[in-house]
Amino acid sequence: MIVVVIIGLLAAMAIPAFNKVRLQSRVKAVTNNLRQVASAAQQYMLDKGVTVVTASQLIGTATDDYLRTISPIGQENYATITVDQTTSQISATDAAFGTVTYNL
Fold this sequence. Notes:
The protein is an alpha+beta fold. It has helices spanning about 1-50, 55-60, and strands at about 50-55, 80-85, 90-95, 100-104. It is built from two helices and four strands, in the order αβαβββ.
């Protein structure tokens, strides 16, 4: 019976720690996706000579695509992101992990 109690206590400590690590992993994946969008947007702005770009402009044909399709980690939507040359950050929002911001 003591062994069962010890295993229960260890599980009670491990499950919240596992959930925290899982959430941090998802946030880092979203941040990486935002970094890719920002990098593609900056390249697009340099090539085209514009100051504002939307995510839909970055996903193009095979010859001029600046960004491959990004798979959402949760419910965030990358298609609605607009990158303006005057802004210093972009962000994505999801109900599970809130708003993730990437500084340009």
